[in-house]
Amino acid sequence: MAFHKQKYRLILPKLFLLVFCFFAESRAQDIETIGNPLIKNFKRADYQGSRQNWDISQSPKTKYIYFANSKGLLEYDGSKWRLFNFPHVLRSVLVDSRGRIFTGALGEFGEWSKSENGNLEYHSLKNQINDQAFLTESVWNIIEVPEGVLFQSFAQAYIFKKNNKIEKLKVPTNIHFFNQIYNRTVVPSIEKGIYEYSAGKFLEIPGSNTFFKNHSFATVMEGNAKNVFYGTSRGVFSQQDKEFKPFNLSLNSFLEKNKLNKSAKVNDSTFAFGTLSTGVILTDKAGEIKHIFNKNNGLINNTVLSMLVDLEGNLWVGLDDGISQIQLNNPVNFFEDISGEIGTVYDVVKFENQFFIGSNHGLFKYDQATKRFHLVAGTQGQVWKLEVIDNQLIIGHNDGTFRLAKNQLTKISDITGGWCISALKNNKNVFIQGTYTSLVLFEKNQDGLWIQKNRLSGINEGIKQLFEDAKGNIWINKATGGIAQVRLTEDMSRVKVMEEFKGANFESGTVDLFYFNQKVWVSGPGGTMWYDKKDKKFVKTKDVPFSGENARFYNFYEKYLFSVNKNGNIKLWTGGKGRIYSWLADRSLVEESENIRIIKNKQLVLCLEDGFAVGNLDEMIKRDSKKFSPPSVNGLFFEKGSSLNLRFDSLQTQKTEIPFLNNSFCIQFSPNTFSHSAKFSYLLDGVNNSWSEFESTPQTCFNNLSAGSYKFWLKSNLSDEITLFEFDVLPPWYWSIWSKILYLLLLVGLVWLLYFLQDKNIKKQKQKLELKHREEVEKQQQEIIKIRNQQLEQDIIRKSEELANSTMVLIKKNELLTKIKDEVVKESKEKKSLVNLIDSNISSSHDWKVFESNFNQVHEEFLKKLQLEHPQLSHGDLKLAAYLRMNLSTKEIAQLLNITVRSVELKRYRLRKKLNITTDENLNDLMMKI
To answer: Per-residue pLDDT tens for 19-34?
Structure first.
């Protein structure tokens, strides 16, 4: 017996120690409980409404969230808020299964529908209610029932039926809110228990009046295993079949004290309860409190007026002052340093079953009992790096290096700036550290504690990253830029060989150096490269995420390769394409000192600027691997208050037309999710040559777009799918289809006019040419005539000379013959025949004909013209006129005519008389003029 007692005395302490270690380990491993689900708060300045938000509903089609706000109807699409003002305080809102939006207020019930530009417009239905009592009641609740849409006050209830008629229900007493529970319509009364409504009848649930006799109802919701949960002034009670019982006594005690007001079922194992004084309570399926969300840990206000679990599993809370979204579907919990005591977190580690964080304020340890972080004395200042090496915590600090072992903090190096630490695989008794100024080697002393061994000579510059490869080479990333491969001497006192890699992709201050799959990798401005040991050079690759970007990489278990790009997007690569994750929402990793750590059992910690995020890696990947919808374009904004501003939901497919005068506008879009904060990238064909950088702003603006058809491409960091939005910028009025027709007609008219003018000009030119030609011809003819005239004149002169000569010859001949005649007459009458012969020669008609012919040639048929004008002239008159034209004297004419001078004068007189010429006129001059 004594043996057995002694045996138990030996076993029990060990067993107790084992159990204690198990529970301590279990508590320490549950690091996720340190933080809370992410809470996003929206203040009045964010949504531009009033402080109180009385009801919440979500559209099953567009996924938009709607709030009944004291100032009007609020709409949230995941990125932008819109307020549609209403003259009364909205108390209730419902978006039914058809996507119709109904709201209720004091003496008001109506439907909101989209106008032509996509804005919501209210259409009151109160005129269909033939009940004066309605005008004095506020519509506090709207639900969808099989008959239609039911809306109610605390005293009256109505149904807007499917035939668009409103029917008043005859309620048995003053009622609380109608609720659809497991396809049943349940309504607690204010005075007489609980009723079930069906087909216009109210049936009291047996036992409810007695059980809830001294209770005031607050909420009704579905429980688990077909239970119905009734929230009252005394807590939450479940009903299964006909039995009522408390859900959880400790929960009920808490809710009775803090005044339950709203409730919501998150899923079968999680329930949310909203109070009037302590915010939101989250419980498990047994009613045990898991989280309390209030102003102390992120909730914007403690008075809950409404609650809704959206289609993604997020809990929306309408508060007395603001709106909060609790992302229960996010697999990551967040610890936020609200007080600023901890500061920016640079590294985290689990050591001796306790959670430590290193920040710019020092080293902090988490106390599970108080659920607070406490500063480790003596570590104030910037902590850069935490590493557990052989059960000792090594702290790289701005002031040097510290060792925490056996609850004792010791400074083991005065060399400032312990940036990075790496244990050596080929020598377990040393580790190497990169500092502001050099590489430092540490070794174990005789007690097995880490101490500084020596500073490595050969490198006198800052080292921000380092690790050892499989062959024992030390790879370093210099703070000033540059990658190098280093081998140490046998005694590890100095650098033996250092091979440096030159080039812009290695010397940039943003280069990242990492080890993965037994390869050395570098990520820099030129992309991602791995070291080819055979060719001893780096080779570019696009086989890892963000390979074309300057990203930072983290290798866990040689299986998971995380990368973080400059936009804060986290991508996980296990081969293949890789996937973007969005665990951080709006929170940010520490810029240029981004850090992701695996603590234990795949507990992933992300160091943030104001705390940290933590979650189980497998669960994070599993819950965040669902397919996200692509972003949607949901509006065009021209200017505030413009009637041209357009809104459309994710179902928009019609091509949009934009007037040319409004060719400067903003395209607005939304992520189509409320669980994750999206970042957007876009491309407008013909305007942008490449995709824009990812940004969180849910809109982009374009100025002075030319007329034409455009394709706007949009993507987010949450989805690989791309959204296409097409729109046309209409041509200006002066380039419309009718204007073009008019211009065509004008052009045709102008062409015709030009043709006409050209034809007219050609004709005119032709006429000018013809005129010119005629003038030239006439000129030539005149020249010819002139030449001919000149020739004629010469001929006339010659003929005149010949005529004169012949006339003189004739005169001389006649004169001679006359003298001969006179002499012959004197001598003998026998010579009469000779005289006759002489007379015939003196007055020969042949001589006259010859004379007349020559005279006409010279004087252009003077005799014919004279005879034509004066037919009364005799042949002798014509002869006299010819001689007068030749300006012969009377004597000379007498000789030619073989008459006396007196006879000639008599002939002249007769000619003057026949021509009717006075004595004052000169007969010779007149003959010359003819």
So the answer is: 334 334 444 445 667 8
